[in-house]
Design goal:
The protein contains eleven helices and 25 strands. With about 525 residues, the chain is α+β, with helices and mostly antiparallel strands. The chain has three domains: about 290 residues, ATPase, nucleotide binding domain (Nucleotidyltransferase, domain 5), CATH 3.30.420; about 70 residues, Actin, Chain A, domain 4; about 110 residues, Substrate Binding Domain Of DNAk, Chain A, domain 1, CATH 2.60.34. It starts with 9 loop residues before the first strand and ends in a 5-residue tail after the last helix. The protein binds adenosine-5'-diphosphate and magnesium ion (MG). Adenosine-5'-diphosphate binds next to helix 5 and helix 6.
């Protein structure tokens, strides 16, 4: 009788610019899996080429020639209803674009690790509930059962700990270690301060800037070269999609060269004119200093929120390809007073941690990896909108302040504002302001069937339960004599319905179109 084969634990770093898939091998070590092209990093880029949909390197190459048919960095728009660029005349939800990426990762990895249908997927620590849910939906579209959604810095810390022996072979922290994770990727930036103590991994504070990444450094170089070209020849290469596509690619390459060499050059060709622009590392540093300063500011803010001094931090971990820029390492060295730890590949650490997390959640592997407690914090304050009694103006009542360890539950009592009220609207918002206009609305639910003849001032209890994976559940209890409670699933403004998810799943897997 053949025993059914064990599925390998799998973790996926679904990155803004590059994605990586890893598994835990027979020796209990995390290992990245090369894609069909033989690379460990798969560009998170999707090309719609006539009949075919192509993901990865070839799609990224097509940016230079078929920009209109390419969807880049869908992660930057996850949580929106549709990706804002029409591709070949069609609009796609970002979940579907990520679904194609995940599907390629899964299929390519299956050639190496065998069949699997479960995986852990990572997200930036500051992703809100809407984006976490949308990421989980992308997994479903790709035919992946998402075991857990974990934060990228937590994942990286697990991988570093595992590799460097602050976690013993059983996954237990040898001594209490505090670290700061600085993650600068292609399109996102985040900082987290964490603590590993015995089996407990907790995030003390986290902050981020999700519109900041290597692409912004590329853009400075693109503008620099294009302006030089325009000054010389009178026309702007950014106005032509082919010239721009080539410029984007060459400037990114030049930027990466500048991490290893003191100078680089970019050749810009447009019409019948060609021009070579040389850039030194110092010049590049000057044109991008404000971007680096933004990361500096976020690091200091996060340290402040965590109430920590640099002497409290044992290690600084570098994550994300952009931390290869010497200026980043210099910044962290001068802030912390010691060299940051770059002992792991900054592009693979997150996927490796996710694979280890997957092993922790997989029955057959749990024995060998009893690392069991990961505590996260919520990265945005959650509240509901209520009318203030004196002014009647809408105001946000905060239920769960940011950086609260999760899981957590919180409750607040509100009152009906008129007699015989028939319905209650519960608007859930995320943000740091008490003005609803400055917060983002993440969901709303209306309770229609209130008991009759409710007197004015009837207590209404709103209870939030924030789960460890960043998902939110809401319970509303109507007070008074006839106590009733209602449980809610959030109605999301931008989410896809189950039917839509299923139809995208079939469409992407080629089972229907
Ligand atoms: P993400 O997490 O956003 O998917 P990655 O961590 O893979 O991204 O980082 C991708 C970014 O890292 C890109 O902007 C790329 O240009 C940048 N990068 C990779 N290698 C280098 C390097 N040697 N010097 C500077 N930037 C680099
Ligand atoms: Mg990343």
């Amino acid at each position: 009788m053949s025993e059914s084969k064990k599925q390998s634990p799998v973790g996926i770093d679904l990155g803004t610019t590059f994605s990586v898939i890893a598994y835990v091998n027979e020796n209990g070590r995390p290992e990245s899996v090369p894609n069909a092209e033989g690379d460990l990093l798969t560009p998170s880029t999707v090309l719609f080429d006539e009949e075919e949909v192509i993901v990865g390197k070839e799609a990224a190459k097509a940016i230079a020639s078929e920009l209109d048919q390419v969807a880049e960095c869908p992660k930057r728009q996850i949580g929106q209803r549709v990706y804002d660029k029409k591709i070949a005349g069609r609009r796609y939800p970002p979940e579907a674009l990520q679904g194609w990426i995940l599907r390629k990762l899964k299929q390519d990895a299956m050639r190496v690790v065998g069949d699997f249908d479960q995986a852990v997927i990572t997200v930036p620590a500051y992703f809100d509930e809407v984006r976490r849910k949308a990421t989980q939906d992308s997994g479903m579209i790709a035919g992946i059962e998402v075991q857990d959604i974990i934060n990228e810095p937590t994942s990286a810390a697990i991988a570093y700990g595992f590799q460097n022996g602050w976690l013993d072979p059983k996954g237990v922290a040898v001594e209490k270690t505090r670290f700061l994770v600085y993650d600068l990727g292609g399109g996102t930036f985040d900082v987290s301060i964490m603590e590993a103590d015995h089996c407990d991994f907790k995030t003390i504070a986290t902050d981020g800037d999700y519109q900041l990444g290597g692409r912004d450094w590329d853009q400075r170089l693109i503008d620099h070269v294009a302006n030089a070209f325009k000054d010389e020849h009178g026309f702007d290469p950014r106005e032509n999609s082919d010239a721009l596509g080539k410029l984007i690619r060459d400037c990114k390459e030049a930027k990466e060269t500048l991490s290893a060499r003191g100078r680089a050059s970019v050749t810009c060709a447009f019409g019948s004119s060609t021009m070579r622009v040389d850039v030194t590392r110092d010049e590049f540093l000057r044109m991008t200093q404000d971007l680096l300063d933004r990361t500096d500011f976020t690091v200091r803010q996060t340290m402040k929120q965590a109430n920590m001094k640099w002497t409290d931090i044992d290690r600084v971990l570098l994550v994300g390809g952009s931390t290869r820029m010497p200026a980043v390492q210099d910044l962290l060295q001068s802030l912390s007073g010691s060299s940051p730890d770059n002992s792991l590949s900054p592009d693979e650490a997150v996927a490796h941690g996710a694979a280890i997390r997957s092993a922790m959640l997989t029955e057959d592997y749990r024995e060998t990896l009893p690392l069991n407690s990961i505590r996260n914090v919520n990265s945005h304050t959650l509240g509901v909108v209520a009318n203030e009694v004196e002014t009647g103006l809408p105001q946000v009542v905060q239920l769960i302040p940011r950086n609260t360890p999760i899981p957590v539950t919180s409750r607040r009592i509100f009152k009906t504002h008129k007699a015989d009220q028939e319905s209650i609207l519960v608007q859930i918002v995320e943000g740091e302001s008490t003005n609803p206009a400055d917060c983002s609305q993440i969901g709303r639910c209306t309770i229609w069937d209130l008991p009759e003849n409710l007197p004015v001032g009837t207590p209404i209890e709103v209870k939030f339960g924030y789960e460890e994976n960043g998902r939110l559940r809401i319970k509303v209890k109507i007070g008074g004599e006839d106590r009733r409670s209602f449980r809610y699933e959030l109605k999301r403004a931008n989410g896809l319905t189950l039917e839509q998810l299923e139809s995208w799943r079939q469409y992407i897997s080629g089972a229907g179109s």
